[in-house]
Amino acid sequence: MGIRESLTLISKEGKRTFLPAACYTLSRSEKRQFCSTLAGVKVPTCYSSNIKRLGYVRNRYRPEGCIIECYITEEAVEFCFEYLANARTIGIPRGVEEMIESRSGFKVIPTDYKTLCEAHYYVLQNTTVVDPYMHEHLSFVRTLYPTKAKNEKWLQAEHKRSFSSWFKRKIEMELDRLENTISQQIRWLAHEPKRKFLSYSGYGIGGYYYTTNNHDSRSTTQNSDIMVEAESLHMFISKDKNPIYANMLYYGVIEDIWELKYTQFKIPVFWCKWG
Q: Rounded to whole angstroms, how far apart are CA atoms 47 and 103?
């Protein structure tokens, strides 16, 4: 019949009958470890309710009952709040929709020109309307240096070094024409961002809220971890002159959030430490 004898009742002489511990039964030390984990867990903002409450144990000798009591109490209060107008439930952060385009913890940062140019290049590299110019410049570099045409690593380095200045000159030449189709976005992207910009510890965009690693160290939530799928050059050895392109997942932590100002619009740039 498939009866598991290990879970049947056990009787001992002179003692009462009892059920043996199941495989999921926790010892006292395991219960304390579990509650300690709940008390210290950090999840992204709006990912869940205040799960830390479940780890708060008033009665250390009956942790299961205490956890259930806290959970039932919170659920009951939230149920009552549903019938009250203009009320906010407890234990749950404000919705993500309220944090779109929100910012926190800003400061003005002057930076060196080299770092600013690097940030500017990554903005151009990840802007769809700039893609045709990226391909055009790479072809231009291949034609300009025919002896280096087969050295993909060198071509990419030269492309990265010279694209921003080439892009600026090209757009200026096209704007000099009486009839041109240059959009306002392309026009201002061709110019470098302002030297002074704002740095934030928290930034809401695209329905998600991001924070820096330093901010998370003082917070009950965790929003600094990030994952990006990107196409990059892969080399078999350090001296490989013909690397291949492939998509790869990158995992990292946000160290800083910059907001670059391009005269008529602003673009956030996340500085990350990749694992």
A: 19
Phi-psi region at 105: left, alpha or beta (left = phi > 0; alpha = psi -120 to 50): left
Q: What is the pLDDT of residues 133-173, one digit of tens each?
A: 999 999 999 999 999 888 888 898 999 999 999 999 999 99
SS3 state of residue 113: helix
Provide the greatest CA pair distance for the chain.
105
| Cα separation, 228 vs 145, whole angstroms | 33
The 3-state secondary structure of 175-190, one letter per residue:
HCCCCCCCCHHHHHHC
Selection from 211, 221, 226, 223 nearest residue 92 by Cα: 221
Rg (CA), the chain: 29
Q: What is the pLDDT of residue 62?
A: 53
Rounded CA separation 16/19 (Å): 10
pLDDT digits (tens, 9 = 90+) for 183-196: 999 999 998 898 88
Residue 193: C-alpha distances to residues 132, 189, 200 (Å) = 21, 8, 17
- Taken in order 164, 170, 172, 174, the sign of the CA dihedral is negative
Burial of 236 (0-12, 13-18, 19+ CB in 10 A): exposed
Q: Coil, strand or helix: which one is 16? A: coil
The 8-class DSSP code of residue 101 comes to: T
Q: How far apart are CA 54 and CA 68, in angstroms?
A: 8
Are residues 189 and 123 in contact, defined by beta-carbon separation less than 8 angstroms? yes
Cα(33)–Cα(237) distance, integer angstroms? 45
- Would you say 217 and 236 are in contact if contact means Cβ atoms under 8 Å apart? no
